Model the fold of this input.
Amino acid sequence: MSRNPAAREPLPSIPLPAVKRLSLYLREIEELLDHGRTTVSSKQLGQALSLTDAQVRKDLGYFGQFGQPGIGYSVAQLAAELRRLLGSDQVSNVCLVGVGNIGRALLDHAGFRRKGFHLVGAFDVSESIVGQSVHGVTVHPMADLPRVVREQAVRFGVIAVPAPAAQSVCDALVRAGVSGILNFAPKRLQVPPHVSINSVDLAVQLEQLAFQVMLAQRG
Amino acid sequence: MSRNPAAREPLPSIPLPAVKRLSLYLREIEELLDHGRTTVSSKQLGQALSLTDAQVRKDLGYFGQFGQPGIGYSVAQLAAELRRLLGSDQVSNVCLVGVGNIGRALLDHAGFRRKGFHLVGAFDVSESIVGQSVHGVTVHPMADLPRVVREQAVRFGVIAVPAPAAQSVCDALVRAGVSGILNFAPKRLQVPPHVSINSVDLAVQLEQLAFQVMLAQRG
DNA sequence: ATTTGTGAAGTGTTTCACAGCA
DNA sequence: TGCTGTGAAACACTTCACAAAT
Done:
């Protein structure tokens, strides 16, 4: 039924920007859900996210037909569909490498748990911190990484170490068998094709903001 | 001279993705500079950033003609040009609102200072932390925001408060007169057109990574 | 009347391919 | 030869606009 080319989900290659917006739709939908809203139109969703209504319909259309003409989208149904698509309806185990300032903040970040990520272990090279429990998570020596990843079925690794150490930590996570890496070190990392990576450079974010301001004022 | 359409910089509207890559070019170039490299080709730069050589040349071409045929780009010259373009050759003052886990990490983040950002003040609603000095930065009550922004010529505000408080903090920063806002709260913020904004949702980053992994494994 | 879902059109970005220079 | 700078072509993404559904 319908003109889906295959039984399983997203064969017709979906624009990457659309994929990235999916999380933002879910974030907005969950807020509507908390506020007791039952339906929402593409126009309203678009306004909340600074997108056009057509964009919202196209994006959601890549993943299924969730709306009702004349009515809009059911908030509850859309929340469920997006959670299923994004996998946040099931818990994934995550480990952290680097228990410095950023690492510590991430260990206590409520948003991770809310989205189905469970931080099951932290790692650091500093002997003075190994063995401690930070925000309820035990800090292991780096040598334990393979064992913990195996025993706890860790799917994702978060890198929060200084730039010079980042690539070797990345390699260690890949060898240990994680499927994805979230990198906060200010360094481009090389990973094999079967591992996905997402990098966030905090200072670059500020720099890009400053440049946007400059363009807005001069340009 | 040359075919620049005007005396001042970037009139011919530059693709936003190109603008965002500029910081990444600078990060890479600075590493080459540290390693003593004197020249680099578009191909080499591209490989380091997972871009094509043509992309690198196009991007840099939007801002000037920095290369030499047959040779490549002078690392030192390109570093200087990029720093000038991005404004990291001059210091900008920044303030932080929200001294929780993430806020604390940002106050001690070396990357900001290195890129010419100077954190001159922090703000929080919690009376127990106001008046303290965290990583060398004084924590003020929210009421002092307008005065500090004015007296210290603060250009950028960083938001690291819980989502429900984010919009009102954002409004306060705009009223105080900042030009740009970097938002870490998991919430879409509305700003007037003369203010630029850049948002980073840490949990969304992990969620997007998880989705990429899923697409790579199924799709 | 309102709103979805979606081909077609329009816009934006990347890649190609090559002239020109070192 | 090796490499840049850049129009032209290719590709990707967004917006338009309207038939179909309620």
Remarks:
- The longest strand of chain B covers residues 117-124.
- Chain B touches chain A through 69 residues (CB under 8 Å).
- Residues 1-11 of chain B have pLDDT under 50 and may be disordered.
